[in-house]
Write a structure and sequence with these properties.
Blueprint: H1 24-41, H2 50-59, H3 74-79, H4 86-91, H5 104-119, H6 123-129, H7 131-138, H8 141-150, H9 154-164, H10 180-184, E1 203-206, H11 209-215, H12 217-229, E2 233-236, H13 245-250, H14 253-272, E3 276-278, H15 282-295, H16 300-308, E4 309-310, H17 312-321, E5 334-339, H18 342-345, H19 352-357, E6 363-368, H20 385-402, E7 406-409, H21 412-422, H22 436-444
Parallel strand pairs: 1-2, 1-3, 3-4, 5-6, 5-7
Length: about 450
């Protein structure tokens, strides 16, 4: 037997339909086992607040060991986990195939699923995770104007805090009345002769995602311009639903399955017609690359989607490898502080965004590989917002120190969360993130 984990991490399927998965005693036994390993190691203490919460519970117990922690307090550790996956893929030395078989994020997911099954979710958490419904309602023209105005009003935000538990200082995204799907449903590509090469067809169907569709359709427009500038045909997928990452983080696995059953046939039709799929939000790509395949390991259609969905910069990097990426840039970017989001890093494809942006002349990319602490919903919740800002502080400090021309993140919400840290009241800053897709469009002069 070899000491330590010398092989690449292995992910086991999530057996969430087995009755044992929801056995509370079995869960607590596994939590105690894993918590004891984490307590003896403490390597992940700087990643998120789950680990400091666990270690404080241990250190403040009578025994100063995990056996001194009340099992009712285990949920305090679970609630702090937002499934960033960094502990599994960047820190933990005991992940499978190591004999200790530690998969902290998916153990937290199991605990969240049991909690959801037993207690359901709060009104706030249900609302925040219903991204399709929110986008449709808040995208109504008059409603969008009203909601966007209220989100900027201090008095209104205090009332929202009282009624829903959303922190008044948290960034809330704007809603657009003209969604990306409305704008580009009838988009006709200008590329008449796309060239397939390697694992790419040269034709991409854009999975707009809830955020790209309802909150920042400009991202989709920029994607279309960049890809067609690279002789890649584009079209929009219009009948899809949410990837269900917000529902996964809530532990609502039945809703995850329902959306999967809706999305996969639509995506499969697109793939069978000869198109690849891209999506502008890393978390959404990760759902189809990792989480859904682990939840439904026998779904052959899902496996086909898994192989055919790409991050935009991953796709461009694959084309660049075959000398089919347009490097005729018109505008330098200068210094760019680039934050690599957790859900992009854990896709195990390298820093493709940085690599592509580094091709722009007179451009210096400062790569920041640390969690921004947003997680889509974690940072907006009253009880977690201040902790999320603390998690973001090292990233914010690096951006301040670098004094870049731009700061950027593939995760738009992480970018705005970092801006929240940069724009403190004392400095009177008005910094705003620029998405890497928009940076590339700027470099092309489009």
């Amino acid at each position: 037997m070899r000491e330590g984990s010398l092989d690449a991490p292995t992910r086991h399927p999530i057996d969430w339909k087995d009755s044992k998965f929801y056995d509370v005693e079995d869960l607590n036994s596994e939590l105690e086992r894993v918590f004891d390993i984490c307590h003896g190691c403490r390597r992940c203490v700087s990643l998120c607040n789950s680990f400091p919460t666990l270690f404080d519970l241990v250190d403040e117990s009578e025994t100063m060991e995990v056996d001194g922690v009340a099992k009712d307090d285990y949920i305090k550790v679970v609630d702090q986990c937002y499934l960033c996956d960094l502990c599994f893929l960047t820190k933990c030395p005991y992940v499978p195939p190591h004999e200790w078989n530690v998969d902290f994020p998916h153990l937290m997911l199991r605990a969240k699923a049991i909690k959801f099954k037993d207690q359901g979710a709060s009104k706030r958490d249900n609302m925040l995770s219903n991204t399709d419904k929110n986008g449709r309602f808040y995208g109504i023209p008059v409603v969008a104007q009203t909601v966007n105005a209220l989100n900027k009003n201090n008095f209104a935000r205090k009332q929202i805090k009282r009624s829903l538990g959303i922190h008044p200082d948290a960034y809330l995204p704007k809603y657009q009345s003209k969604s990306a799907k409305k704008q580009f449903a009838n988009h006709q590509t200008s590329v008449s002769n796309p060239k397939p090469v390697g694992s790419t067809t040269g034709k991409v169907a854009i999975y707009a995602t809830c955020y790209g569709n309802h909150n920042e359709p400009q991202l989709i427009e920029d994607l279309i311009k960049i890809f067609e500038h690279n002789n890649i045909a584009t079209k929009i997928i219009t009948q899809d639903k949410c990837c269900s990452m917000p529902k996964l983080e809530l532990g609502d696995l039945e809703s995850v399955e329902a959306n999967k059953n809706h999305n996969i046939p639509i995506m499969l039709d697109v793939i069978d017609e000869g198109w690849d799929i891209i999506a502008p939000i890393p978390s959404c790509v990760l759902m189809f690359k990792q989480e859904l395949p682990l939840m439904f390991p026998e779904d052959d259609a899902l496996k086909k989607v898994q192989k055919s969905i790409f991050d935009p910069f991953e796709y461009l990097a694959l084309r660049h490898k075959e000398e089919l990426f347009n490097t005729d840039f018109k505008t330098k970017l200068g210094k760019v502080s680039y934050h690599a989001p957790c859900h992009l890093r854990v896709q195990n494809m390298g820093n493709k965004t940085r690599d592509i942006l580094n091709l722009v002349p007179d451009t210096e990319i400062e790569l920041i590989e640390r969690c921004a602490g947003h997680d889509g919903t974690y940072a907006v919740k009253e009880e977690f917002h201040e902790i999320s800002m603390k998690i973001a502080r090292p990233v914010v400090n690096k951006i301040k120190k670098n004094e870049p021309n731009y700061f950027s993140s593939d995760c738009p919400l992480a970018g705005y969360h970092l801006a929240n840290g940069l724009n403190n009241k004392e400095d009177n800053n008005e910094s705003s993130p620029t998405h890497p897709i928009t940076l590339l469009k700027t470099a092309y002069g489009l």
